[in-house]
């Protein structure tokens, strides 16, 4: 197993991070490092809380975890530090502000109490039972409709075979 220097790892991290956002197969091809090694490094960096997107997606399409990491990293920054941070990572101030607002709004909703949660689960179970009953009823009616259609077609065929009743 080849041991790579910290400089090589830092170069790979820089290539994976914004604004470069090169994907793993491309970096692997250019540097000759096996893809599983690169995926492992990226996973470790993400576990350490660094923003290394899972792909070369546009920052607005990053995962919620990546966006939240950016919000956490920039929480104590002043305007100058935030601008510098955004430039380094290829982000816009508006994106970070929008992500911060989304994180705050997510926590604005009240948490359900245990009683409310049990009530919600009971209603969910009742809804599931009702859905099951309605599906059974629908299947029964579809079968009856198919049988009625078959009888109607058979009656028309018999009538066509024997002719009109008034012909004799």
Describe what you observe in this structure.
By secondary structure, the chain is mainly α. It is 69% helix and 0% strand. The protein is built from 7 helices and no strands. It has helices spanning 6-16, 24-31, 35-47, 64-73, 79-89, 93-106, 114-162. Helix 1 packs across helix 3 and helix 4 crosses helix 6. The radius of gyration is 31 Å and the shape is elongated.
Helix-residue proportion: 55-70%
How would the global form be characterised?
elongated
Biggest β-sheet strands, sense, barrel = none
Low-confidence region ranges: none
Structural class of the helices, strands and pairings?
Answer: mainly alpha
What proportion strand?
under 5%
Mean pLDDT: 82
Q: Report the total helices.
A: 7
Give the strand tally: 0
Radius of gyration, in angstroms, nearest whole number: 31 Å
User: How far apart, in Å, are the first and last alpha carbons?
Assistant: 97 Å
N-to-C order of helices and strands: HHHHHHH
Layout of secondary structure:
Blueprint: H1 6-16, H2 24-31, H3 35-47, H4 64-73, H5 79-89, H6 93-106, H7 114-162
Helix pairs in contact: 1-3, 4-6
Can you give me a brief rundown of this structure?
By secondary structure, the chain is mainly α.
